[in-house]
Amino acid sequence: MASLAATFGRGAMTNGWVDIKNTDVVLVMGGNPAENHPCGFKWAIEAKKTRNAKIVSVDPRFTRTSAVADLYAPLRPGTDIAFLYGIIKYALDHKRFHEDYVKIHTNAPFIVGERYSFNDGLFAGFDGAKKEYDKANWNYEPDPKTNSYQVDPTLQNPRCVFQLLKKHVERYTPEMVEKICGTPKDQFLKVAEVVTSTGNAERAGTILYALGWTQHSTGVQIIRTAAMLQLLLGNVGRPGGGVNALRGHSNIQGATDIAGTFEILPGYLATPRGGLNNLTEYLEKVTPTTLNKQSWTTMNYWSNYPKLAVSLLMALYGKSATKENDWNYQLLPKVDGNYSWMYIFDDMYRGKSKRAGGEESGPEGFITFGMNPVGIGPNSDKMIAALSKLKWMVVVENVEIETAAFWKAPKDQYQTPDAKDIPTEVYLLPASGFCEKDGTFTNSARWMQWKWKAIDPPGQSKTDQEIVSRMFLAVRDLYRKEGGALPEQVTSVTWNYTNPINPDLDEVLKDINGKALVDIKDKDGKLVKAAGQQLDNFAQIMDDGTTMCGNWLHTGVYSSAGNNAKRRNNADPTGLGMFHEWGFSWPANRRIMYNRASADADGKPWDPTRPGIVWNGEKWVGDVPDFKPDSPPGQFGAFIMLPEGVARLYAAALNDGPFPEHYEAMEAAGDNPLHPKVTSNPVGVRFSSDKDKYGTASDFPIVCTTYRLTEHYHYWTKHHGNGRLNEVQPGFFVEIPEGLAKEKGISNGGQVKVTSARGSITGVAMVTKRLHQMQIGGKQVWHVGVPLHWGFMGAAGHTGPLANKLTPTVMDANTWTPEYKTFLVKIEKAEGGVA
Amino acid sequence: MNSPGLQIRQSSASLHGDTGQRKMPVVSKYIDTSTCIGCKACEVACQEWNDLGNVDTKQVGSYQTMPQLNADFWNLIKFNEQTLTDGGFAWLMRKDQCMHCADPGCLRACPAPGAIVQYENGIVDVNPDACIGCGMCATGCPFDVPKYHKESGKMAKCTLCVDRVDVGLEPACVKACPTGCLHFGTKDDMRALADQRVDQLRANGLAQAAVYDPPGVGGTTVVTVLAHGDHPEWYGLPRDPHVPTGMRFWKSVLRPVGFIAMAAAVFGAIGHYLSYGPKKPKEDESGPAAL
Prior knowledge:
The complex is a heterodimer of chains A (835) and B (291).
Chain A: H1 2-8, E1 25-29, H2 33-36, H3 38-50, E2 54-58, H4 64-67, E3 71-73, H5 80-93, H6 99-105, E4 118-119, E5 122-123, E6 126-127, E7 132-133, E8 142-143, E9 148-149, H7 161-168, H8 174-181, H9 185-196, E10 205-209, H10 211-214, H11 219-232, E11 243-245, H12 252-257, E12 264-265, E13 269-270, H13 279-286, H14 305-317, H15 341-350, E14 352-355, E15 358-361, E16 365-369, H16 373-376, H17 380-387, E17 392-397, E18 425-430, E19 439-442, E20 447-451, H18 464-482, H19 488-491, H20 505-513, E21 515-516, E22 520-521, E23 527-529, E24 547-548, E25 558-559, E26 562-563, E27 584-585, E28 613-615, E29 620-622, E30 685-686, E31 702-707, H21 724-728, E32 733-737, H22 738-744, E33 751-756, E34 759-768, E35 773-776, E36 779-787, E37 810-811, E38 823-829
Parallel strand pairs in A: 1-2, 1-10, 2-3, 10-11, 16-17, 17-18, 31-36, 32-34
Antiparallel strand pairs in A: 4-5, 6-7, 8-9, 12-13, 14-15, 19-20, 20-27, 21-24, 22-23, 25-26, 28-29, 30-37, 31-38, 33-34, 33-38, 35-36
Helix pairs in contact in A: 1-11, 5-8, 5-9, 5-11, 15-17
Chain B: E1 8-11, E2 27-32, H1 41-49, E3 76-83, E4 89-96, H2 105-109, E5 116-119, E6 124-126, H3 136-140, E7 147-149, E8 154-156, H4 162-165, H5 172-176, E9 182-186, H6 187-203, E10 210-212, E11 222-226, H7 245-276
């Protein structure tokens, strides 16, 4: 999501599930939606049946998605950037890109400063000791005359983004793609031709991806490359287009929106860093300056940061927040280090945390809520060892997951310390399942849909909000009674719910939406909002303490019209599956983000049969436009969240380069054929404890990937002994290509042992034609795969090895996502014949 | 037998179905294997709706749930990794279940009166009350569908959810399918849908695409679209299924002959009675035990 935010302005699926039916070409890469998103995948099938759309599947494995694709091409795991750059080069070489679109909706004409360079695998500004780039080297060229930046609308200047991109992708010829990805040249060219058939006004293509892209040390840049390709083809903002991140769970998008990770507050506001001592300093740091370089002015919506931040503070602290006390900004926790969960576990294991002020002792307590770190974390033995050092741990879950039972992980398979040496006291709180509570789901398409409780939770299980509330109220009572360091941080938090122990989520959603705190009048003295009224949209959010808003992005979900997440009107006047009165889609009930880019400079849709929005002479009609409906074409660019107002082919925002570049995985199967001296991502992250072991291709010559299966839900299904789903997918297996199985004397259904530098797991061999031998610079490499749904807890007969016992503690440098999709192993035949 | 409300067109070991039938269209399930993702939602829906017992499955190196249909598992996606004749590759998935033949070999083979029936809407169903568990239906089925259920001692197979269909619902498998590769409707409509999809596949370069609706069994109430229609065996389907000749002989020739013979015997007995009157018991024969 970091890459989409850096490229388009917002980190979410650009279009929506239903919109996939409007496409002409579906490129599925870094995902297997038929397996992992079967219900959403129906729209790809729909496009295939009704529009004769082509589904193109590019994947190391021939998957369930490949099975129904019109075209399949294999590639070596982790080489997606090379493949996508190959397509970009093909589009540029054969003029199969949408030039008019590129000129008005991207930063292709922007001139880049002289300090930018790329040589032998490194961009300008690399600090080898710190393993960091100084991103100031990548800035645009300032224009002293206009106090802005230089552009060349003809795209001819050799320092313009378009020409730099052309130069950067020069190396990615079809031959180089074959050498890096192992994709036979003719198969690559077929894919390139079909995908670039949408590089014009008449046709539209979509890209579907998921964790098969995210979980690489180059993950963010892989997605960037896809976003760049879609911009060149003119496919962003258009019905049937987009870069569509398929979220794996029903509410992952909602969790991210509401501050899923440590570096963001609700609505993607930045968590304040230490050193930003007051609200003014914080706002100066985070509010971007508008860059007006094109004929269009830019809205630069983040210039509203002060309103969004102050209204969030009002929601958090209520009456105690005043202008005089900086709206209680001082009470917000400040970030003094990296609190992403891989670091938390490293800190836990080492007993030390690197913080801005030096080293501190590591965490001694841990609350894990709806998450199974021992199952999902890389290097399971490190996870177990880390939890073994805690004083206490609270696990909130529906079943006794591996994390809650880490201390009894079987010693013949895991390096579990003796129970007497584990001080950790574990509290397992029974949670309620999704159908045992009401609330909203924010789906992949950003649709917030209310769901109603179907049954009561069993036994002593409680709803999430009751568990959180009881914890909060107990801690607040302690602070009130006993005081402590800065008790106001907890005691000033507003908690105005009818039932404070178990708040009605309808009331919580009202807070998230935001409301007026006093009567708000416009400049003519007319009442806009009476005190207490719900806000209708984020334009009504104020920076003077007159409004409160828990998450500006969700404003409109609970407007003065009521709870819009409950709407179920399936009318679709657009005919394009937008369904504006079904639930609520952030932002502003917009169904396709950046929809201004679905039209040309004059506001005419590129394809009149599939209009996103249309300027009818007075206003924009169709989808909810990116800006005020009556602002004429030419006033604002489509990408209102970026200070440029256009999308970024070149983005100086990410930590590993303004352009993507092909790097091998951190555990590389061989030298990078492009620049052997810089094989892996130079800013990729490794850890250095004794548990962080990394393998080399000489010891571990086979590439391995982990993935999910459609029959199982995460680590839960195996707990359901007589469950139908265990019946249809009964146990763990290892997928092995036929040639490798033959080489190793492994037969289908026999036992196989897979070993990485972290450890071994054993399971049933599934010998298949669907995996391949792929090359890296002429050397042949085998690929195997393991599904991740099993573990040592579960119903009798349904337990199995944790796939993550094999995976390495390495991460990408932008989102700190572990590299589960490409790491090194060896395999051998194990004891036990055909089952 | 799930639906006594439906009228019966034909019935095992019987000459006639119900009389005075209200005409109703033959229903059909459409399966487009070219858009099936093998997700097994249909398998689970079938198990749940029909309240079937769990089968103790094992992972033996395949995505396929079990090798073949089972008396407690009536709907099975068959997976096949197929190298194509042009050197290409396909991972074929076909939902296997009772094909509900227009001319059902099972019904012809069944010796128990009324144990297998074909309703007026084309659905072929086992009536467990009449089933004697002899397994003859399995020998008559060219698709290897009916299975012997040990616990009940009866034969079991897909009913096309006749209990749902009877009240206007689609079968559970169709209801559960997330991609829309399954549809339910009249045979004419489903056949038209299949022909249309085959036309599209052919236009897209798959000249061998075909509808599987084999005439040897009078056509099937399950209409299947195959992208590789020239190789039905790749999908686990017989190329040219027929009701075994012996079964046809039994049902079409022998059984009517048998009825005639029986009728002749009855008429003969009546004639004998009319001619000679009731048989008088011999004096020395003892009691009902001998009767």
